[in-house]
Amino acid sequence: PPGPGATGKSGVSPAAFAQRIDPRREPGLSPEQRLHMEQVERALRRRLRGRNVLLALGIGAVTAGIYAYTFYSVSQERFLDDLEQEVEAARERARERAQSAAS
Q1: pTM for this one?
Q2: Where in the sequence does UniProt note compositional bias of the Basic and acidic residues kind (predicted)?
Q3: Is 41 helix (H, G, I), strand (E, B) or coil?
Q4: Counting CB atoms within 10 angstroms of each CB, which of 3, 69, 74, 78 has the fewest?
């Protein structure tokens, strides 16, 4: 079993590829390379921020849609309940008229 100092198939330790490089402390980098790395990181951060905003707006829209649909459904239920009560009242009035006409 590989120990902590073991290397992977490519000769690089398993965690070495995930280590963050600080361009200011890295020896052997030219100023142009450092500048390029900072520009690339800035561009990636900007893109990620844009995606996060879009994701937040999407989640907000879905949440608002669920709430709107819920409120609409509840109001429809109340409307149908009120309509049902009106129908019952109309049937009762019709029965009363039919009984008074029969007597």
Answers
A1: 0.47
A2: 21-35
A3: helix
A4: 3
